[in-house]
Amino acid sequence: MNHYTSKNFVLTKSIGFLLNKARNIVVTETDAAYKDLDITAQQMGILFSMKSGLAATPFELSKLLSIDTGLMTRLLDKLETKELLKRVRSVDDRRVVNLKLTAKGEAAAEQIPDISPPVLNARLKNFTKAEFEELLRLLRKFIGDSA
Q1: What's the DSSP call for residue 88?
Q2: Could you write out the three-class secondary structure of 66-83?
Q3: Which residues span the domain enclosing 21?
Q4: Strand partners, 98
Q5: Is position 62 within any domain?
Q6: Considering the domain boundaries, does residue 4 fall inside one?
Q7: Which pLDDT does position 147 carry in this prediction?
Q8: How far does the signal peptide extend, from start to end residue (predicted)?
Q9: What's the CA gap between 137 and 147, in Å, rounded?
Q10: Among 46, 51, 52, CA closest to 79
């Protein structure tokens, strides 16, 4: 079924516009919440993904977080400059770069579960539990995630 046609398409009512606007709001609010840690929402995603064991290389992080490799390199450079992570060449394959959180990075990552929920909950305060679960279900369906 085609939900949009050339006759009914309105930019500000399109799913792409609304998803982008919602994303921008969450990123802005998340950036503000992480100001004291001197990290951004994107950097938080990297640190928490590493802390959670979801990714250990730049490529894995790029795939997981849907960030192109060029931007990922710049984000990792900033995190390395802030001494939150370090790059370590694989001993098995010198082409592979593994990432490791520093003690400072571990300490920052440990604070993420305390900082992010209030930001998200403030945005979701008018949702019932059923509406929240339905939103998650629909977003997973939209992105093709069957999990």
Answers
A1: E
A2: CCCHHHHHHHHHHHHHCC
A3: 12-143
A4: 88
A5: yes
A6: no
A7: 62
A8: none
A9: 9
A10: 46
